[in-house]
Specification:
4-stranded mixed beta sheet; 9 helices; disordered N terminus; single chain; 5-stranded mixed beta sheet; alpha+beta
């Protein structure tokens, strides 16, 4: 009979012919716990004694234990606001609950000596003994080290150890060591499965074309990945490379499924830097470099080209394009406007110094 739950203010009826009814009458534990059994009209009635029925509290009495309803609010140490989604678990059991939007919670604890464990991503977990209290308010402090282990995904954040999709993340520590005029150039050679192709070195037109795990579609929708900047779709090259805090690449369907068909070519999530509480910090970054052609082709002189062109036309059974007089004028240089001998490509690449500078001042 010790496992029989009896709630105060309620009664239970059993037929007298039942062995359970006889056992109830014979049990001495009822009198010890403040209950008086009786048998009116072939029915066993178990009711609480007057002393027990008059007590009003939030405790539910079990045989040998007291169940307490504990409630309270979980707030953040940084702003004092309630934290939603905090896990409240009874230590040593699988019984628990989560806080509401305003940080409030309610949980039934099996005994006065229970311990509640409060935990949430980005905060330091706490273990609080109940000690018979019915109201327990908790303040959680931020866990900076734990935040570094969190990876940004399409629907929020998730610990890297729990990820099932293919996700690569590049932090600010690595990005700050790279010098690039376009944000798309930051992903060259830093993460697997991402191909960055730069087709031009012209200033302002030197953006890289990004492909995640090759071509995902051949439709008119294009082959470029979806770029999300601080939760808003945009262009990766519209962001200043110095303002980027982290870049996360969602490579497969499992990680990018929340964006639907727009994520057919993968997703690139960009988080920009934010202000931090404390003293103002000022940083200055400068970069000086030189750009020059690795190798230029060797071109023949203009008169040599005219002779070879005539020879090629004769081999094809055609008439020569240049006369001997034209070839002599190319060689002599007497009429450079009509018969020039100029190496335009060589002069174009060697006309300037090729110096590039960049200055960045951050507050």
């Amino acid at each position: 009979m010790k496992k029989l739950l009896i709630r105060l203010g309620k009664f239970m009826l059993y037929p007298t012919g039942c062995m359970l009814g006889a056992a109830i009458l014979a049990s001495p534990s009822l009198a010890t716990n403040g209950f008086s059994p009786s048998i009116p009209a072939k029915t066993v009635v178990v009711t609480p004694s007057p002393a027990e029925a008059s007590s009003e509290n939030s405790h539910e009495k079990y045989a040998g234990e007291i169940r307490i309803e504990v409630r309270g609010t979980v707030t953040s140490s940084s702003d004092g606001q309630g934290i939603p989604g905090v896990s409240v678990l009874i230590k040593g059991t699988e019984t628990g609950t989560v806080t509401h939007v305003d940080g409030t919670y309610t949980i039934n604890v099996p005994n006065e000596d229970g311990i509640l464990v409060f935990s949430s991503i980005g905060y330091v977990s706490q273990e609080v003994p109940v000690n018979g209290r019915t109201i327990i308010n908790i303040t959680l402090t931020e866990d900076v080290q734990g935040l570094e282990e969190v990876v940004v995904v399409g629907y929020g954040t998730q610990k890297k150890a729990n990820l099932t999709g293919s996700v690569s993340s590049v932090g600010s520590e690595l990005l700050s060591k790279r010098h690039a005029s376009q944000a798309s150039q930051l992903l060259q050679g830093v993460t697997s499965g991402v191909t960055a192709t730069q087709t031009s070195g012209e200033p302002g037109q030197d953006a890289a074309s990004l492909k995640i795990r090759g071509l995902g579609t051949f439709s008119g929708a294009g082959t470029n990945p979806l770029v999300i900047v601080d939760g808003v779709p945009g262009s990766i090259n519209a962001v200043n490379p110095n303002d980027i805090e982290s870049i996360t690449v969602l490579k497969d369907a499992a990680s990018a499924a929340i964006y639907g068909s727009r994520a057919a070519n993968g997703v690139i999530l960009i988080q920009t830097k934010e202000g931090r509480q404390g003293k103002m910090q000022v940083s200055y970054e400068t970069y000086v470099g030189k750009q020059e052609a690795t190798e230029l082709p060797e071109y023949v002189d203009s008169w040599t080209y005219a002779e070879m062109k005539n020879e090629a036309r004769l081999n094809m059974g055609q008439n020569p394009e240049f006369t001997q007089e034209d070839i002599n004028k190319f060689r002599s240089g007497e009429d450079p406007d009509n018969y020039p001998n100029k190496h335009h490509l060589r002069d174009l690449f060697n006309s300037g110094s090729g110096l590039q500078t960049k200055h960045n001042l951050t507050f």
